[in-house]
Amino acid sequence: MPSSNAGIPNPIPAPAAPDSHIDHATAIAYWSSTEPTVNGVLGGYPQVSRIDLQGSSNFFAKLRRSSKTHPPSAGKLRRAADCGAGIGRITTGFLSNVAETVDIIEPVKEFTDKLKAGEGGVGEIVNVGLEGWSPKGQYDLVWNQWCVGQLTDAQFVEYLRRVTAALSAGGWIVVKENLSNHHLGEDVFDELDSSVTRTDEKFRALFTKAGLKIVATELQRGMPKGLFEVRAYALQPV
Ligand SMILES: C[S@@+](CC[C@H](N)C(=O)[O-])C[C@H]1O[C@@H](n2cnc3c(N)ncnc32)[C@H](O)[C@@H]1O
After folding, report:
1. Do 146 and 160 form a contact (C-beta atoms < 8 A)?
2. Could you tell me the domains of the chain?
3. Which GO BP terms apply (predicted)?
């Protein structure tokens, strides 16, 4: 039956979710045009690298001290993955100190060209986005830093589920990311690299959806003023 909507205001369409704007081709074009240096992958803040790596190392040492399966006395982990690895900054400065082998997962081949499988603790080098990565074998530690904003919420949850299935008993997924400081507590889309910056609440909801629990979490201290807060979450299956 035809009906008039005279006097009834047009409904305001719900704004599109920030992650619906993510476009992988735009992201890869941006990162491919970025210099393959610490300055390039850290967006012009290379001085953050040392603080970040020290914070990660301390955070991980605490995880191991509270672990029954991977206590510090067990020595290096067998296998880790550096996901969205860029030029391998985290592998070189931290992960290769704590794991025998570190696989590199990074979609931009130019970033990984200087890394050599079998050298400096580097294992396999896989040039693919995390949305398309299916881990093979088992990992004791899967480190994700400053890259999961490149995935939509749904892709991120599916990715976490695939990684969980590849985690050794007592192993960890670590997500270390910027947190949105939006005044209304919303995720924020960044056109520059076609990514989203999520709130702490959104991260926690997505971890729960993926069947993961937070076993430790910590804010990165010592970040320069004016930058987003950075939080590390260590996750294990519920
Ligand atoms: C800010 S850099 C961080 C690199 C590294 N994690 C670090 O902290 O040094 C973001 C990285 O995410 C990568 N990236 C872009 N799209 C991605 C995707 N779909 N999956 C995984 N990584 C992606 C970029 O190529 C880039 O290397």
Report:
1. no
2. 18-237 (3.40.50.150)
3. methylation
- Apex CA 53: angle with CA 130 and CA 116, to 5°? 55
User: The tokens 């088992």 sit on which residue?
Assistant: 138
Ligand 1 atom nearest 130 alpha carbon = 20
Query: What digits encode the pLDDT tens for the residues 91-104?
Result: 999 999 999 999 99
* CA distances for 187 relative to 107, 151, 178, 180, 233, angstroms: 24, 13, 11, 6, 18
d(CA 33, CA 226) in angstroms, rounded, equals: 25
Number of neighbours of residue 61 by Cβ within 10 angstroms: 11
Is there a binding annotation on residue 89? yes
What is the 86 CA–ligand 1 centroid distance (Å)? 5
Ligand-binding site membership of 123 (annotated): no
**Closest-lying ligand 1 atom to the alpha carbon of residue 145:** 6
The model's pLDDT over 70-93, given as tens digits with 9 standing for 90+, comes to 999 999 999 999 999 999 999 999
DSSP 92: I
